[in-house]
Amino acid sequence: MAELRRDPIGGRWVIVDTDHPTKPEDFEHESHSWRGGVCPFCYGNEALTPPEIESFRDPHTSPNTSGWQVRVVPNKFPALQIEGDLDRRGLGIYDMSNGVGAHEVLIDTPYHHKDIPDLLNEEIEKIISMSCRRAVDLGKDKRFKYIMIFKNYGPAAGASLEHPHTQLIALPMVPKNVMEEIKGAHNYFEYRERCIFCDIIRQETQEKERIILENKYFLAFCPFVSRFPFEIWIIPKKHNSDFSHLPPEEIPALASILKETISKVKKVFANPAYNLIVHSSPVNGDSGGVEGYHWHIEFMPKLTRVAGFEWGSGFYIIPTPPELSAKYLKEVK
Amino acid sequence: MAELRRDPIGGRWVIVDTDHPTKPEDFEHESHSWRGGVCPFCYGNEALTPPEIESFRDPHTSPNTSGWQVRVVPNKFPALQIEGDLDRRGLGIYDMSNGVGAHEVLIDTPYHHKDIPDLLNEEIEKIISMSCRRAVDLGKDKRFKYIMIFKNYGPAAGASLEHPHTQLIALPMVPKNVMEEIKGAHNYFEYRERCIFCDIIRQETQEKERIILENKYFLAFCPFVSRFPFEIWIIPKKHNSDFSHLPPEEIPALASILKETISKVKKVFANPAYNLIVHSSPVNGDSGGVEGYHWHIEFMPKLTRVAGFEWGSGFYIIPTPPELSAKYLKEVK
């Protein structure tokens, strides 16, 4: 019989198919197909992006020329724009606002075909450091309440360019799911005076069966209440609500666990599309209740396509139990 | 500049791209590709499904033979199973339960290639009547708290069989998104003593620009805070919280607006995959607060694939403003 599981943070129930679990080879494999054309993220094409905001680059090279390792530019087609004050107003029963915010693209690497598993640890550390720097910088703007950092890899995951990149969106409000996560964690904290994420780490470390990888500072595991098959969380073992203030000594450990985790996923599935989302605390907040919140990364390979239904209903059926996903990922060399 | 809009029911903010709206021809078209094999839903293959639960069929024909117009069978691979009592228990920090529920498939028509726009109004009325009958019947089981009725059309929308069909899942708990919708509507009702959906109908009818179709009993419109491009709601004009107790005189009007709406979508897009979800009040409820709730259908053509990110963050970017979607749909003949 299938199993129903309840997310202890948000209270969502999901159905886990423990009877006929879907094996990795049963998921349909989709090859990535890209539009051709000149890549604006490759060396020599720097003029094809808006002028860079920040970069790590070889000394004696100039902005907007090659010689960079990580490069941040404004998104050419931003979802939100940086100019102007937030202007909230009503429209009968509805509420609206102008689209103030920021939308930046962090080009992960000069190499068009190198995703995280193909990079050196030091190169991944640069992506992480730059993400933190940009989050800190954007957070200084008092109009913004949340800095969302995420990565879409592959067209099936929503990427429109092949060259690996990460996106940052600064929002004038905290997204609903983030707010719910924070509230859920805060309720638990009020009741137990403990961080729910720390308690999850404790239970997962004890039970072991959903853990994929572990190092001094981080844990990678398939959450008990996953919403997607082979969903993975990467979480710092030491309590910290804010990704952008990641202690420098934790950066190499994060780079290494990220690289190893995604390598494992790519060995189980042939180069699947994926989404990676950093869940971190809001900025400039009187949003309250960040107590008990704990930053983490949610990683989701794009294996199934039952989108609209789950989207619309909030009701998830997980074809592969997380215990089994973790087993596959753990065992692959 | 883009526009931020807030859903008055759930409080979710979305970004609407009013600057560079995506036109219908800009969405990538995906052709449906199906696995071959004998169709278990066609006439003559009745033995390939579990025995039928109920059907509308020609007099003098026997169950599980041809001669039916609409046929309901248990799902061969059910997400939940009908036997047993609900057994909720804790597992450390987590909560779980066995998978008690029901999962039925309503075969819409004997015709393998006829979707709703290709059927006669009377045939669609039979699908609606049977959906209501099954929902009423499943609702008699006191273990169930919610009857979810939905339709996935096309592989991109999660359908695994080509032959048009509808699904019913009876759940031992109310799904999170439904609960939020009910709570949001109830809060509004407590504050204003009016149904928020009735107020939305009033405002949309006044503003007109998002309305696609209207008849005596129903309205089809693109909601002000859509989460998907070309999302459409079909809502009864007369307040009613429960789809399964649809007044008989409204059934022909619903069949006709459904047929016309989906026909329009199929004229704007070449036979797109879609999801259709009935949002109705819970059953056997002490869930409270159904006051102010109003049943409706949410229809979402599957045009974009930016799934995981929105899924994971709850943060939606709408490439086509609903006003523009409604205009395209209204104008197509």
3D structure, described in words:
The structure is a homodimer of 333-residue chains. Chain A is an alpha+beta fold and 333 residues long. Chain A has one domain (3-30, 39-80, 95-331): HIT-like (HIT family, subunit A), CATH 3.30.428. In chain A, 25% of the residues lie in helices and 23% in strands. Chain A has a ten-stranded antiparallel β-sheet, with helices on both faces. In chain A, a hairpin with a 3-residue loop joins β10 (211-214) and β11. The longest helix of chain A is centred in the middle third of the chain and has 19 residues, at 121-139. The relative contact order of chain A is 0.17. At the A-B interface, β1, β6, β8, α2 and α3 of A face β1, β6, β8, α2 and α3 of B.
What topology does this entry show?
Two copies of one chain form a homodimer.
Chain A: E1 3-6, E2 13-16, E3 54-57, E4 68-74, E5 88-91, E6 94-98, E7 102-107, H1 121-139, E8 146-153, E9 165-171, H2 176-192, H3 196-207, E10 211-214, E11 218-221, E12 232-236, H4 251-268, E13 274-279, E14 296-301, H5 307-313, E15 316-318, H6 322-331
Brief overview:
The structure is a homodimer of 333-residue chains. Helices cover 25% and strands 23% of the residues of chain A.
CATH topology of chain A: HIT family, subunit A
| Number of separate strands of chain A | 15
> Given the C-alpha coordinates, what overall shape of chain A results?
globular
Order of helices and strands of chain A: EEEEEEEHEEHHEEEHEEHEH
Q: How much helicity do the residues of chain A have?
A: 10-25%
Structural class of chain A: alpha+beta
Corresponding CATH superfamily of chain A: HIT-like
